[in-house]
């Protein structure tokens, strides 16, 4: 089984994160991107043979069969394909990681990621990631601290290169 709730549908620059390992999972669990950021929806995908083990009434879910959720998911999938968002995630993720790695800061230990799921690890002496997240939010850049010392960036799959008119954000001032 592959849990692709956060990583699936292009977030990592491939349709599924497990594609990087050449894995074809028997069961894939999807969510988040499946709703296009508009409506909560999740799905389990597998072959008829595997899903056929469930008989009517043996399995259910809170939002199972919701017509609005299903229509939203279908529309989100069309946008992902028609707008080449998986490919864009790979291209923009590489660009974003390169730019982050260029930041001259004694606080940055490592920049890593796949596609537009990027982590910037800070040295413990930086005093935790939260203050950096708050400083970047004031500059209209959203990220989340994870494990106290990692900034997680997950920009939209439709991201484009910025048209910079001023200096880029600096970690020196944090």
How does this model look, in words?
This protein has 4 helices and 7 strands, in the order E-E-E-H-H-H-E-E-H-E-E. It is an alpha+beta fold. It has 2 domains: about 1-80, no CATH class; about 90-155, Aspartate Aminotransferase, domain 1, CATH 3.90.1150.10. The strands form 2 sheets. The chain has a 4-stranded antiparallel β-sheet, with helices on one face. The protein has a 3-stranded mixed β-sheet with strand order 1-2-3. It is elongated and about 60 Å long. The model has no long low-confidence stretch (mean pLDDT about 90).
Topology:
Layout: E1 2-3, E2 27-30, E3 43-46, H1 48-51, H2 67-82, H3 85-101, E4 108-114, E5 117-122, H4 130-137, E6 144-146, E7 150-153
Parallel strand pairs: 1-2
Antiparallel strand pairs: 2-3, 4-5, 5-7, 6-7
Report strand order across the widest sheet.
4-5-7-6
| Cα gyration radius (Å) | 19 Å
Unreliable runs: none
What's the total helix number?
A: 4
The SSE order reads EEEHHHEEHEE
Mean pLDDT: 91
Proportion of helical residues:
25-40%
The tally of beta strands, per DSSP, is 7
Outline of this structure?
This protein has helices at 48-51, 67-82, 85-101, 130-137; strands at 2-3, 27-30, 43-46, 108-114, 117-122, 144-146, 150-153. The chain is of the alpha+beta class and 174 residues long.
Label this structure with key terms:
2 domains; 3-stranded mixed sheet; elongated; Aspartate Aminotransferase, domain 1; alpha+beta; 7 strands; 4-stranded antiparallel sheet; 174 residues
């Amino acid at each position: 089984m592959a849990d692709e709730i956060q990583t699936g549908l292009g977030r990592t620059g491939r349709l599924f994160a497990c594609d990087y390992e050449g894995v074809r999972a028997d069961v894939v669990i999807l969510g988040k991107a499946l709703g296009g950021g508009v409506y909560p929806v999740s799905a389990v995908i597998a072959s008829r043979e595997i899903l056929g083990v469930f008989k009517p009434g043996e399995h259910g879910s809170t939002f199972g069969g919701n017509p609005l959720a299903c229509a939203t998911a279908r529309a989100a999938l069309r946008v992902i394909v028609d707008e080449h968002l998986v490919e864009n995630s790979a291209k923009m993720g590489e660009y974003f990681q390169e730019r982050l790695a260029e930041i001259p800061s004694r606080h940055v230990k490592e920049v890593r990621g796949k596609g537009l799921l990027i982590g910037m690890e800070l040295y413990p002496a930086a005093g935790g990631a939260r203050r950096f997240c708050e400083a970047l939010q004031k500059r209209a850049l959203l990220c989340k601290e994870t494990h106290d010392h990692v900034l997680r960036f997950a920009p939209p799959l439709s991201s484009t290169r910025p048209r910079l008119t001023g200096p880029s954000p600096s970690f020196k001032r944090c």
